[in-house]
Amino acid sequence: MSEEKAAAKAAHAILRRLAAKGGIESAQPEAVEAEIVEALERYERSLEAVTAAVLVEATSLAGAQTELDRRSVEADVPLDDVALPDMVDQLSQLLLDSEHVDELFVDDDELDKIVHAALLDYLPAIASRERAKLAAAFVRPRTLLAESKPTPAVTGDYPFPLFEASLESANVDEAGPCAHCEEVVDVRFSKACFACFRAGKVAAYVMDTELGMVRAEDAEEGLLHAAPRSAAPRGYELVEMGTAAGDAEPWVRVRVDGAALTELLHTPKYETWQGEKWLFCCQRPMVFVGPMKEPLLARLREAEETQEEVVGRLLQSGTREAHERTHQVLNGRISMYVFHCPQCRKHRAHWDCA
Q1: CA gap 292, 298 in Å, rounded
Q2: Using CA atoms, how far apart are residues 341 and 318, in angstroms rounded to an integer?
Q3: How far does Cα 229 stand from its chain's mean position?
Q4: How far, in Å, CA of 170 to CA of 153, rounded?
Q5: Residue 95 CA from chain centroid, whole number
């Protein structure tokens, strides 16, 4: 059922769940459903008015999202889970007072739970619809972005095959002398000039990844990430390390192409709140695309995907988490870091916050 019919879907869900429990008696169930729909549509109309007012004054998407959150609360039509307590009370009371309900055979707590369950689907749908209106006003459609490409660090003086983002996203040092050849350069990578860094002259350089830390000795062996067998990632060749005293299962290491790991160690880290966590796909390090910003989010949208669907696909998360993360990243509460696989072209991401 489309988002335009979200109110009818929620109303139907409430009555269906009540009927399944033998919890309602009504000679006019259609009239009861219509009452619930009307109450929900009043909420939607009030929220739409808030969105329209925000669009008149907002100058950026992030600002509009923040203002929508603030004004919706002021107008007593908050978004998402903030709306749950009042709306549960309102709809439960509507059912208790309705002249079309002959009898309710559930107690107040059970009634609230049934209404609450239906709203868990309804409220995210409405919030997503209103936020999409804001996005449509500030983010260009994907077709207009088809020829737009990120400013890559793989061009010019700093070619990094695994780092496609702009140099501003890289964790680099200020201008100064290279710690190895002593040449004074404008940009240094772990205190080294580009040539020395690419040659692997930075001692004890470590890159943290989702498979564990990568060091020079790990790249040489093509093995990393010691873990219990049950916790090891799927799809990789595992090398047994034996069973330590007191452990119920053997520990293993993950085999990854040594040359690919060496290339990763010749790649700058990206700026994060809590430290990098390089992602893998097709058993190789992925290419860092950049931090998630509004233009990148728009560029990654496929066909009729919503912003939430893009985020859910990148994070491999469920609908509710994707909805929350989208809201947080657009408002700067979290940062997302996007990668793509040069083999299968898949995109993935992880997130962190301060």
Answers
A1: 10
A2: 22
A3: 29
A4: 9
A5: 37
Say what the pLDDT of residue 80 is: 83
Domain regions of the chain by residue span: 3-138
Q: Report the amino acid identity of residue 158.
A: Y
CA 301 to chain centre: 13
Which pLDDT band, with edges at 50, 70 and 90, does 330 fall under?
confident
The partner residues of 213 in beta bridges, in order of sequence, read 208
The pair of structure tokens assigned to 201 is: 């002259």
Q: Closest by alpha carbon to 115, among 151, 144, 90, 146? A: 90
C-alpha span between 113 and 120 (Å, rounded): 11
Predicted model pTM: 0.57
Q: What's the pLDDT tens digit per position in 32-58? A: 999 999 999 999 999 999 988 888 777
Which residues are within 8 A (CB) of 220 and not within 5 positions of it... i.e. 6 or more apart? 258
233-242, 256-265, 292-301, range with greatest mean pLDDT: 256-265
User: CA 11: distance to chain centroid?
Assistant: 30
**Whats the size of the chain, residue-wise?**
354
Cα–Cα dist 271/288, whole Å? 11
133, 136, 137, 138 alpha-carbon torsion, rounded to 10°: 130
Nearest-angstrom CA–CA distance, 161 and 267: 8
Q: Can you give the C-alpha Rg of the chain in angstroms? A: 26
